[in-house]
Each structure stands twice: as structure tokens, then as C-alpha cells.
Amino acid sequence: MSYTTNKSTELFQRAQLSIPGGVNSPVRAFKSVGGTPLFMTRGKGAYMYDADGNQYIDYINSWGPMILGHAYEPVVNAIKEKAAHSTSFGAPTELEIEMAELIKSMAPNVDLVRMVSSGTEACMSALRLARGYTGRNKFIKFEGCYHGHADAFLVKAGSGVATFNIQTVPGVTAGVSNDTLTAPYNDINAVQRLVDDNKGEIAAIIIEPVAGNMGCIPPVDGYMEALRSICDKEGIVLIFDEVMTGFRLAAGGAQERLKINADLVTYGKVIGGGLPVGAFGGKKEIMQHIAPLGNVYQAGTLSGNPLAMIAGYTMLKTLKDDPSIYTQIDEKTAYLHKGLDEALKTANTPYVINRLGSMISVHFSDKAVRNFTDAATADNALFNKYFHALLNEGIYLPPSAYETWFISNALSKEDIDRTVETTATFFKK
Ligand SMILES: *Cc1c(COP(=O)(O)O)cnc(C)c1O
User: pTM of this prediction?
Assistant: First the structure.
């Protein structure tokens, strides 16, 4: 190691005495890539700093929310100012209306939107709503897609579930998981078969419109259109899980970018500007079944929390007022893509770089990566070595081959050049 991480090692040992595995979310533990997780103390712009004072170029960005970099001043200042006027009421505030109106002005097909505190909550509530609305129990999800940790979604899930290769999650009952039907991503015939075999029983199809929890896997041409038409024909609610893609791929998320209309949409990550926020919304016809308008119950003590709302509002307003941010961040990611491609071309290693907008990832595979099986058969041991080689040089990739790299607009050309050079050096060895 070219740098020391003694303090992090010490903290990790201490953490394990009082926190399961020393972490509050599994992938953070570095279990699959090996080594000791680094404890962070602060961040500014494109960089974060660990307890030993090491600086890292950040390609996680809190798994998405820090799309404008760490400690983005307008967000920080807005939180400070708001906090002085109480951090929670449990009664409605005008700011919640402003947040909902702002979301509606950016996201297509959102007549009504309900705020929650995480992406998990957003997806779990959207599924309940789709079931309540249709009166059907089953739903389809895709292998390698992650929709949070609610029971129904923990079947062939991506992200940490894939990283740790957990086949069945203890605690999720067969009664629940039997209603979860799964199909490979990007295979419309598999979806059609499930629909034919379960006629009139499927409430929803939930999908990451650009998959990001098995590395980045964009939809193949015509796939989303075909899903839309199956849902229309069969009265199935199409749920776009835009927790990752929302306010990242465009102001209107994947719906805008791919030009596909969803019936319900879920948000998280960017929408909270780094505070715990999620949301689900959609057409009035469906959303009006949520309590207190309808009987599909859904609630939250801290939902619409003032600090969370002002952080999210300030973030979204910035993105709405300056659409050039999306062009810039896409250009930066394209520049990274080109650089990585050149660095890897000269190496004697098969690789696939998937990218759509500012979502990108590298799979060490000799064939196209279009679904979870493709991602799982890539050389993920090599990814783990690559991860550590970069980490040693102060470049922090997601600690799993099953994650998308989250690009922030704070990244400079120099940061990207350094990432590419370090990649080239590693593969020359
Ligand atoms: C992160 C993520 C979730 C879960 O969100 P949390 O805020 O971690 O609960 C759900 N869906 C997708 C697509 C995600 O990337």
C-alpha cells in the first residue's frame, strides 16, 4: 500500500463491536472486494477524505445523490437556514407543495406525488398501490434489478444481494416471494410468457428503465416500447423505478430520455440532495387510491421532513434551472468512456463498457452484457483487483462489479485523466 489506512482499520474494528458487520448498509463493508472499508470524514466537490486524511476522487457520490459533488454550497446553506426553524413538525408545510410542484414540472406523467424517506419505501409503496388499484397480487421484476429491500423485491435482486451472491433471503416467506415473477432483463419473450401463463393476475411490471444494480445495462432497442404495449394490452401497471435514473439521465429522468411513459414512477437518491428522501407518483387515476384519498394505506412520521425537502428542492431547482448540467455531465462521462476504452484496448483483457448518459460501468467480459447472467459470468475477480489498484491511487470506484459508477458534475478533466492513466498503468502490469 502506498498510503496508510490505520485509522480506518481501527474504526472498522471498533464498529464491528456495535454495528452488524461494522456498517449500516452491506456493500460498504468491502466484503466482496476484500480489504478494510474506509471511514470518511468529509467531502468537497469531486473528492472525499477518509479518517487518515487520504483524498479520493469519488465515483460513488453517495450512490447517486451527490450529482453536483460533495457539500454543494446552495444545498448546505439551505439546510442550515431551515434547521434553525425546527427540524420536523408532523404537520403539512408549504415547502412540501413547492417540492411536489417542482417534481411535477420536471417529471413526465406525474399528476400526484407522495414523499417518503427512501427508495425502498417508494418502491414498496408503489407496488402496494398497483396491487390495490388492480386488485391483482402478482408482479414481474427483472433478474439483477434492485428495488430496495422490501420483502417482495428480494428475489433475484441486484446490488448487494448479487454482490454477496445471496440466492434466497432468509426471513422472506414463500407466501410473499411466490407472487414475485422474474424474467431476464432485455428479453421481451420471457415477459410475454409470464403474462400468458398468469392471465389477469399480474398487477405490475417494475423495472429499472436503465439497469444500474448489475453494473450499467441499458435497455435494447424496442424493449421498453414492447413492455409498454404489453402493459396497455393487459391492464398491467408499468412502474419505472427511477431511484437511480431520476433527475440523473435528464430532468425528466428515463421517461424523458427513453421517451416512454410510465404509469407509476419511483424516485430516491438525487431527489433528496443527500438527505433521506424518496417519492412515488403517477397518474391521478392510480394515485387517488392512496390514503387519505383512497384506502391503500401509506404513511410516514418524517415524510416531507423540512430538512429533507429543502435539500431536495434546492438540488432539483438547480438541475431544472440549468439544463446544461446534463450536457456537461454526459460529456464528462463520454470522455471517461473514451479514455477507459483506449486504456483497456491495449490490455490483453476482454471488457465491455456500458454507458447511457452519466451512468457507466465496466464488465470484464468477452461478450455483450445485456442481462444479469452476462454480468455474473464476467471476470469479477479481476474487477476486485482493479478496484484496489485504483483505490491505492486515491480513486474510489463502487466496491462491486454489480454497481454503476456514479458520476458527479464536480469531476474535472484532470480527475478523469488521472482515472484513465491509473487504469492504463494497472492493465500494463
Ligand atoms: C438505490 C435503489 C433503490 C433503493 O433505494 P434506498 O434509498 O437505498 O432504499 C431502489 N431502486 C433502485 C433502482 C436503486 O438504485
Answer: 0.97
